[in-house]
Design brief:
alpha/beta, Rossmann fold, 7-stranded parallel β-sheet, 7 strands
Length: 263
């Protein structure tokens, strides 16, 4: 494992951009990261739902970090649209952190042999792969490497990036592609810190897991999800805390895939 420094108390004065920040794991990340940003930092929340973003902004404004001067900006953007990634910028500081969390489950009620409409597949891949690459590239160009500023890119990944889940062809394909995308980025940009973090999708307490349990076509996988739910789910805050530890320790190998259960 490479090490870029010892464990830090916080992430310094930072610009932090979180996509998919209005609900679920993204909103938990916003709460967790807000406590690690030293004022006057800026937290940029990106999602498609204006109402849910405003609720997240109000929650953070009332928090200890908000009262201490954290600037929270909401950007309503559909990252599948060509201009979506260009709407998220603010001034950077000592640390620029981008968390690529936005993702969709896709139709898991069907098997791979049923996806015969190219437009349907292209639309899914545009949101889950293309927009992620374009946003990351835009951020790196907007904030080029310079002395005294650390740049970190986090890809919220999944076990599905490494293992096939029957009837999850879209989700598994997109997650695998994103992991490789960020491995390439780490190889190309050695001064950049790159991490793919799998938060424990299966038992995570999110709407996505609830939808997966209800609609997954594969009966064996559906039973697995029901068993996981019966045993108790991983809280988003728990998984978020482990990601915060990884970022503060800063000892992961750039480009690595780290799972919640590996820590």
């Amino acid at each position: 494992m490479s090490c870029s420094g010892g464990k830090r108390a916080d992430l310094g004065r930072a610009l932090c951009v979180i996509t998919g920040a209005s609900r679920g794991f993204g909103r938990a990340l916003a709460r967790g990261l807000s406590g690690l940003l030293r004022p006057p930092s800026a937290l940029v929340l990106v999602a498609r739902s204006a109402a849910e973003l405003r609720a997240a902004q109000a929650e953070l404004a009332a928090s200890e970090a908000g009262r201490a001067g954290l600037v929270v900006r909401c950007v309503v953007a559909d990252l599948a649209e060509p201009d979506g990634p260009r709407q998220v910028f603010a001034d950077g500081m000592e640390h620029v952190l981008l968390v690529n969390n936005a993702a969709s489950l896709g139709d898991v009620s069907r098997y791979a042999r049923t996806f015969t409409t190219r437009a349907e597949v292209d639309s899914y891949m545009s949101l889950n792969i293309s927009s992620c690459l374009c946003l990351t590239a835009c951020v790196l160009q907007a904030f080029p490497q310079r002395p005294g500023v650390q740049r970190t890119v986090v890809n919220v990944s999944s076990l599905c990036a490494q293992q096939p889940f029957s009837s999850w062809v879209l989700y598994c394909t997109a997650k695998a592609a994103r992991d490789m995308m960020f491995r390439v980025l780490a190889a190309e940009e050695p001064e950049l810190r790159v991490l793919s973090y799998a938060p424990g999708l299966g038992p995570l307490d999110t709407d996505m897991f609830s939808a997966a349990r209800a609609t997954t076509a594969d009966p064996g996988l559906r039973r697995t999800f029901s068993d996981m739910s019966a045993q108790g789910r991983v809280l988003s805050e728990q998984s978020c805390s482990k990601l915060m530890e990884l970022l503060l320790e800063d000892t992961y190998q750039s480009g690595a895939h780290v799972d919640f259960y590996d820590i």
